[in-house]
Predict the 3D structure of the following.
Amino acid sequence: QVQLVESGGGLVQAGGSLRLSCAASGGTFRNHRMAWFRQAPGKEREFVAAISWSASSTYYADSVKDRFTISRDNAKNTMYLQMNTLKPEDTAMYYCAIGWGSRWFRVDEYDYWGQGTQVTVSS
């Protein structure tokens, strides 16, 4: 059974940094895209960043571009999100996902999801 486990969330002051990890297990993954989404209370889940299988392509939401960096280590089946210069509006539950669709920013293009890790940024 496919399992995605996020870690690395926490409470940080505005301007600080966090590094999220997403470990995948329970399946043989090839040619898949991995992504981070986030969801704040009362809001819809939104795209944050995605990375292709080979890591040759990365995509970012405008709100996090130049502050967040997505990466992956296929040998470890793990994806990362380095988050710098955090803002209070980055506060949300962060989810990782795996999918094979072409519309990398859409929630319904991803087949497997983790349980999420909470990121809280204080002002």
